[in-house]
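Email to the structure team, subject: Inner membrane metabolite transport protein YdjE model.

Hi all, the expression group asked for a predicted structure before they design truncation constructs. Nothing fancy, just the tokens so they can compare against earlier work. One-line instruction: predict Inner membrane metabolite transport protein YdjE, return tokens.
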Amino acid sequence: MAVVTDSNLDTTVKTGGKRHYLDDARMCMEHYKFLIILALAYAFDQMDLFTFSFVAPALTKHWGASMEWIGIVNSCTFVGMLFGCWFGGWLSDVIGRRKAFLFSVFFFSVFSILNGVAPTPAIFLVFRTLTGFGILSMVVVAMVYITEILPAASRGKWQAISLATGLLSVPLIGQIAEKIVPSSPNGWRYIFFIGGTGFIIFILALSWLKESPRWLIAKGRYSEAEKVIQRFIKDEKVDINNEASINPDNTAPKEAGTIETLKEIFSKKYARKTSVLVIMVCCITVGYFMFFGWMPTLLNDYGFSLDDALWMSALVSFGSPIGNYLAAAFTDKGGRKIPIVIYSLLVGVLTIVFGTLKIPMVIVGIGFFIRVLMDGVFVVMWSYLAEAYPTHIRTSGTGFIYSTGRLLTAVAMVVVPMIYKGFGYTVLFGIIGVMFLLVAVTTGLWGEKTAGRSLDELEA
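Reply from the structure team: attached below.
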């Protein structure tokens, strides 16, 4: 095996004489423009995603909404996300990452605005469900898009940094909600209008985003792929015939429908990997949204005033971007497997402790630390999941696995009030903690190390 070195490479890699242009590229302006778009998309995505947790207490006051109705809204939102995962993954593999991304941004921006003008609870429920559809359609495309464009040695870091930058919108919307929501009966409506400004991303993306060369290669569109790769490799002539990822087995480009994708990800080759990913995604996703999606409402019902519940939740939300920025330093270490295990162990233990706390500032302190860790493990999971499958089913497979977590979260959003009323606050958070401990054990025993490896190597 020949060792290839080049001034344009971040690392020295063994390639047998073949170049891995995308995996080995040095970061350039085209990469940074791409990351700006993705970070902005994550910002509006996360803003829309967490907005309802801040307005839900106001809806109980001004619309007379019950805790059960809030659970139904959360559940329907995650049902929308479920179908968004499937649709976004499928659409991205069929028409390309760029077009699917643009469609998703446009879709969730429109319905975010419509959330704010909904005249009745029933219509609000429909709009909220469709917002969830657009949000997760975009997320599935984005997490794979980053994995396919960024260099192998640092793609996890940049995934974390772009999401962390986007997550700055969560404490921002929390602070805005704290001021605006209690100000008038219609204060909650104005919060949703903010999410509609996501059209800014759509406009920028039209000129800045280019199609994923890996998708173009998978479709046999080699000349187009070469032109896009050349934008990321400025100092040398790109020769697509030497790109290691082009049909290494001299087979025709693959096409995979939904049934074919499911058969492949559950085949003998991927069965163990898929099982680990399903457990990981389901436990982390359900636990995350059970905790933070319900935190303001549970604190309010637990005995804290609406204002106290909102400021406590808003302070805890500052842990989101911090958690992702910190994860950027660790995500590419230990093959991604080790950080997931350590993060999950810490979250599991601390969440069990959280359920026993009653002092406001202690709740804020421990909750903040849990938020840092949960968001950290979430973004590491995104990179891990997006690296799991070959290009022709990468977003379809990622979308299906990610949707399993949203499906169970939809169920959990309805079950949370039942657990809370039947067993209490402490048991509810204990259950969340156990889910994260399960992730640590499963990943530690059967997980695969993926960080820093070429996608072509992983595919092979």
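The two ends are 16 Å apart (CA to CA). Residues 1-17, 242-253 have pLDDT under 50 and may be disordered. Ping us if the truncation boundaries need rechecking.
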